[in-house]
């Protein structure tokens, strides 16, 4: 078993921090507003990033977004909108079930 001495405790915490900073999808709204509140209180972006355990560029982008839009929530995605209606979807499913052998 691997043992850490007292001088290696910082290395142990760095490893734990690196593992927890692995890829995350998005900051939740609660974390976003918490970061904005801390920044408004006068904390530095790097300190906020360390406290929330995210990269400082995440906090930088969040702060720029908040200053520009006065909103810390995520923006709506910009993907292509669906043209097919729900009625068309139902018809296509019904047709595919009737014509099972066409695509087999």
TrEMBL record:
UniProt feature, compositional bias: Basic and acidic residues: 14-24
InterPro entries: Homeodomain-like_sf
Domain of life according to the entry: Eukaryota
GO cellular component term, pick one: nucleus
Region (Disordered): 1-24
Location(s), subcellular: Nucleus
Signal peptide coordinates: none
Biased composition (Low complexity): 1-13
SUPFAM superfamilies in the record: Homeodomain-like (SSF46689)
The protein's name: Transposase Tc1-like domain-containing protein
UniProt lineage: Eukaryota, Metazoa, Ecdysozoa, Arthropoda, Chelicerata
């Amino acid at each position: 078993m691997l043992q850490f001495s007292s001088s290696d405790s910082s290395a142990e915490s760095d490893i734990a921090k690196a593992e927890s900073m692995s890829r995350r999808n998005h900051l939740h709204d609660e974390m976003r507003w918490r970061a904005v509140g801390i920044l408004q209180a006068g904390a530095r972006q790097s300190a906020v990033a360390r406290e929330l355990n995210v990269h400082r560029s995440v906090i930088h982008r969040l702060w720029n977004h908040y200053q520009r839009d006065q909103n810390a929530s995520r923006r709506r995605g910009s993907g292509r909108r669906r043209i097919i209606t729900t009625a068309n979807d139902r018809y296509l499913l019904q047709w595919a079930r009737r014509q099972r052998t066409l695509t087999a």
